[in-house]
Amino acid sequence: MADSGPPRMHWAKELGLLFVIALLVVWPVRAFLAQAYYIPSESMTPQLAVNDRVVVSKLAYDLHDPHRGDIVVFDAPPGQPTRPDRASAPIRFIRRLFQPSTHEYIKRVVALPGERVEARKGRILINGKRLVEPYLPPGTTTRDFTVRVVPDRQLWVMGDNRSNSEDSRVFGPIRRSTVVGRAVVRVWPVQRISFL
User: Fold this and answer.
1) pLDDT digits (tens, 9 = 90+) for 79-88
2) In the structure, how many helices (H) and strands (E) does the chain have?
3) pTM, to two decimals
4) Where in the sequence is the domain holding 20, given as residue range(s)?
5) Is 43 a catalytic residue?
6) CATH number of the domain encompassing residue 99
7) For 19-150, where are the E strands, in sequence order?
């Protein structure tokens, strides 16, 4: 019986094959179906805490338009800070396949295209009517801002932590085309796994 080579060579071949299979499985899922997202700030507390991990459905808005109250992930608006990745291009590519993204924001949809949104006396008004926000802790108020009309194909997004969130009040409405998807489930930490 012929020697099939040293054990290290077999191990290296198997490892290489496993890596290729992982790429073939992970890349299409991440590119077309779902993406992990890491919560880097307190802007969505208490719903989402710093270091929570959520899974974002990239198919949700192929099936329907965004709804008020949805938690969405979107590309960082122009001029807003992101955490740079200084690794080489191949390393960045591999990281993007397996690690949560750090170049997007996560906020809640508050107003839809064509709606007038404002904050008056600590409350959000949509087309002049008070918005009921059951996802906010009791007593939460929003600093007043004047009426803004949400343009066509755009969304007004805000963090749940109204006193500590850079959102549409800072960078304006976001383009619908920049939305990556809808956050559907918190997967980490384990004791807080829940649908969103």
Assistant:
1) 665 555 454 5
2) 4, 12
3) 0.73
4) 7-113+150-195
5) yes
6) 2.10.109.10
7) 34-38, 53-57, 71-75, 104-111, 116-120, 123-126, 129-130, 145-149
Active site residue 168: no
Mean pLDDT on 14-39: 59
Residue in 43, 57, 101, 168 annotated catalytic: 43
What does the alpha-carbon distance between residue 1 and residue 107 come to, in Å, rounded to a whole number?
63
The full length of the chain comes to 196
Q: Which of 57, 58, 101, 107 is catalytic?
A: 107
In a domain, 145, yes or no: no
Per-residue confidence at 1, pLDDT binned at 50, 70, 90?
Answer: very low
pLDDT of residue 42: 85
Token representation of residue 165: 């969130």
Higher pLDDT, 13 or 43: 43
